[in-house]
Amino acid sequence: MFTPPKRLEAGVFVPPPAPARQSQGSVLMISYLFPPVGGGGVQRALKMARYLPTLGWRPLVICVDGLPPGMPRDQVLLDELPSEVVIDRVPPPRFIRALSARARQSTSPDPGDTPRRGSRVKARARSILAAARDHVMSPDEQRPWVRAATGAARDLIESHRPDVLFSTSGPVSNHLVAERLQRSTGLPWVADFRDPWINNMHWRHLPAGRRRRERRMEARMMGRVSCATAVTRAFCEDLADRHPGLPAALIYNGFDPDDYRDLTPSAISRDGERTLVYAGALYPRRSPAIFLHAVRALIDSGELRRGDLRLLFAGIFDYPGHSANRRLVADLDLEDVVYDVGSLSHRRVLALMASADGLLLIGDDDPAAGAYIPGKIFEYLALEKPIVGCQAPGEARDILEMSGRAFLCDPGDAEGARAVLRAFLARGHEEIDFAKDAPWLQPFRRDYQAAQLAELFNVLCSGED
Hints:
- By secondary structure, the protein is of the alpha/beta class.
- It has helices spanning 43-51, 94-103, 117-136, 145-160, 173-185, 208-222, 233-242, 289-300, 324-331, 346-355, 376-382, 395-402, 414-426, 446-460; strands spanning 11-13, 25-30, 57-64, 86-90, 164-169, 189-193, 227-230, 247-250, 274-281, 309-316, 338-342, 358-362, 387-390, 406-409.
- The chain contains 14 helices and 14 strands.
- 43% of the residues are buried.
């Protein structure tokens, strides 16, 4: 029976940041998603790899080779990595690429769609593939990548002799790779959760048999983890409650002040117009409908004139095969108010946000949403602009309200959405003001968070009981 190191106390805690260059060691990082893959999901692993060398820890990265279906490419992100970072890119089995591409288009058509017979047959086939994925691909569709990644990681361990393992999810399959490596090497292992695995609000639709299997899988893994890290206190508390004896460290997501230097905001506002920018993906639980209806209501009441406000959406407005948001914009006659600018590089998204008069936040409309902190809120805060949106009560809302710049309502509160838009529009135009070094923002900086992780590595590898 594996006995984890006893140098960290069980339960939830906030690690202090390590001083620069306190130790010299290397860490094997398992992160399926890594640049040049773009999107919000790569930022945590990227920034850890960027800043850990300044703290005496050399990253050795195992990631996927190629661009997963539906993921954007952001080649410029690679320029952030120091030369000492070692990256081993492991391709997935060929059939995974085909299955992933089909499964991403396998959800039901939008209400109102009337597909032809051939389309219905194809949709049925995709639905069967998705069902097979949900039953077999446990804990996720990257599971077949685990074997090849484990083999590549063992070669990296043989050649570089790392001192500690670090796996970050999603996908959860990253932790399967780390578990296999821990069993064979005995190295300390830090398992990082950007979202919960069990008790995830997006996990409930899975078949009951798979959920039971994954609960057992998680319990087995957590028995070998030296320390878990998570991005919200609620996630940490859930892990510590369900796995007594497990140290669970709170390390938030965040922003990198360097990302905001030398930004060139573009002139996106016309004379007299206010702009709100949303960055990220939209889906049924995170729908812009409440604010689109609010804008329509304010126009109809005469409180808002066309040309007074524009909403820009950067990211995924509608997933492939869906058109609900585009149709709603047309039905509400808001084509001259709402613009889908598509997926942009991280740098271009920040420039767009820096150009805006305010930033739009759409939180999940789900009973569990209060336990989540959308990663975008930290980059929103760094720009010190008004934040207009809906967010369930919880840690994220508490953080936003600390800024004094948030106009928030509850998800699903139609009158509240109109009220926060009124409050935003009542403010005068504000000059762009980039990130400051306010003390309360320190735990949300990427360099600070890398120092927290380095301190965990220092303790686990110190050799002290």
